[in-house]
Write a structure and sequence with these properties.
Layout: H1 5-12, E1 21-29, H2 38-49, E2 57-60, E3 70-73, H3 79-82, E4 83-87, H4 94-105, E5 116-122, E6 129-136, H5 142-153, H6 190-200, H7 207-212, E7 232-240, H8 245-248, H9 254-266, E8 283-289, E9 310-316, H10 324-344, H11 346-354, H12 358-370, E10 383-389, E11 396-397, E12 400-408, E13 417-423, E14 427-435, H13 442-461
Parallel strand pairs: 4-5, 8-10, 10-13
Antiparallel strand pairs: 1-6, 1-12, 2-3, 5-6, 7-14, 8-9, 11-12, 13-14
Helix pairs in contact: 1-11, 1-12, 6-11, 9-10, 9-13
Length: about 475
């Protein structure tokens, strides 16, 4: 089966320093008075993975790398490769989990195998387990990856029980038009790609109009932007939804508030001249899902979503606004324009991505990295900020109970930083990943986010 344009693109742009990994870190508490056995969890996960055909296929390149790769089924999964065990050092807290996740994010997957891997990690304080699931971005985007992981944690009911009350949903939510599951067979044309090219290069409309609109390559360079190393650092944070109340009273969405909060927190790593009058705002690349929202109360599919169905919005974070309330207003205005534009350009963006071929793209990216061109080229954006939604807290999973689920996204060349948020019933779980050379302070950023959200809330209340 041929890959889609975006699937092929994420395969083509991977390099030794840029593993294109979609990752989820699940923290499982043991049942009261009990324990969760790593061996039995690993065995159960292996049985469940063997029932998902999407996890039993690998990428196969075309002749000389001039054609997009195809998905080829494998006869049998090598579970010794895909399912692994690890242990945390004492005291087995979140910092140790973050250290392990950073190490795992620093190494690409073996693309001669189906491109996913799952670690069962012992040594968590309190006797629980940690699961670290990784998949290549060519196989899944954030929504599909989270849905596949959910299938492994809580497998769906048999087809004969679909639509019954027993078939409770556990599927990530997204929004947008339906690009079609299993859309990998599409072949976007060159003409469609040309539709996106002027926008991508900043040529849309007059110079004055283009300056007002959000888009790629229209942001200042931040200290963490540039050529990235292979080593990743990771941090986790949690923001309760109650802390968003004051900001949401203005009509802002949770996503608007988080983007503003990230901008406020990042100001601490900017020189004064980058936040004063006349400065340009930092900009986030925000993936926009083009998948439909699952019906409320709908059952899980036997086969989870796969592939990529995303557009890209570029949202200024309001870092040029000294007043947090004005920064939120600027973000609201930007997202209201950028997100619909990203959805409208979705198919054209995929067509543009489909033009990338591994035989050409990988050497070009490699040469650019070796020459450190990303230290001098204008940055595409200053960081990636992604959003997902899934009710997870307290969910019974594999003999334990799910305490937290932290999503982590890839760190693209030239950007150096990724913040991915998972919205649950009561709060946001945040996974922050960065280049260890460009952004070694990601744990300080995680600590700064609650303070920045409080700063925004106080400004909106007039305190």
């Amino acid at each position: 089966m041929p890959t889609s344009g975006l699937d092929a693109f994420f395969s083509a742009v991977e390099g030794p320093t840029t593993p294109m990994l979609v990752t989820a870190v699940a923290v499982l508490d043991p049942p009261p008075g009990g324990s969760v056995a790593a061996a039995s969890v690993q065995r159960e996960l292996g049985e469940r993975a063997g029932r998902l055909p999407a996890l039993a296929r690998r990428l196969s390149g075309g002749p000389l790398g001039l054609e997009a790769p195809h998905w080829r089924p494998v006869d049998q999964l090598d579970l010794a490769y895909h399912l692994r065990r690890a242990a945390l050092p004492s005291p087995g807290g979140l910092p140790e989990v973050a250290d392990l996740a950073g190490e795992l994010l620093s190494h690409p997957l073996d693309l001669s195998q189906p491109p996913w891997r799952l670690w069962v990690v012992e040594g968590l304080a309190g006797g629980g387990l940690v699961l670290v699931a990784q998949a290549h971005h060519a196989l899944v985007d954030g929504v599909a990856g989270l849905g596949t992981f959910a299938q492994l944690l809580v497998p769906g009911p048999p087809a004969s029980r679909r639509g019954t009350a027993a078939a409770a949903p556990l599927a990530p939510r997204s929004s947008g038009s339906d690009p079609g599951q299993g859309d990998a067979g599409r072949a976007p044309g060159v003409l469609a790609a040309l539709e996106a090219l002027p926008w991508f290069l900043g040529w849309s409309g007059s110079t004055e109009e283009a300056a007002r609109r959000s888009g790629p390559f229209r942001c200042p360079r931040a200290p963490w932007n540039g050529t990235v190393s292979a080593r990743r650092v990771v941090a986790f944070a949690h923001l309760p939804l109650a802390a968003f109340q004051a900001a949401r009273a203005t009509g802002a969405t949770v996503n608007d508030v988080l983007l503003t909060t990230v901008g406020l927190a990042l100001r601490r790593w900017l020189p004064p001249e980058a936040t004063g009058p006349g400065s340009r705002s930092l900009s986030a690349l925000v993936p926009v899902s083009l998948r439909p929202s699952p019906p409320a109360g709908g059952p899980l599919d036997d086969e989870p979503l796969t592939g990529n169905a995303v557009g890209c919005a570029f949202v200024p974070l309001g870092t040029d606004q000294p007043d947090p309330a004005r920064a939120l207003a600027a973000v609201q205005a930007a997202t209201s324009a950028a997100v619909p534009e990203a959805r409208a350009l979705g198919s054209a963006f995929e067509a543009l991505a489909a033009l990338a071929r591994p035989v050409l793209t990988r050497p070009l990216v490699g040469v650019a990295a070796a020459l450190r061109l990303f230290d001098r080229l204008p940055p595409l954006a200053n960081l990636v900020v992604s959003f997902l939604s899934l009710p997870v807290e307290g969910l019974p999973v594999l003999g334990g109970r799910l305490r937290a689920l932290y999503p982590l996204g890839p760190v693209p060349e030239g950007l150096g930083l990724n913040v991915t948020a998972l919205r649950t019933q009561t709060g946001l779980f945040l996974g922050i990943s960065g280049c260890a050379e460009r952004a070694p302070w990601v744990r300080s950023l995680a600590d700064a986010l609650p303070e920045a959200l409080d700063e925004l809330s106080r400004a909106l209340r007039g305190w």
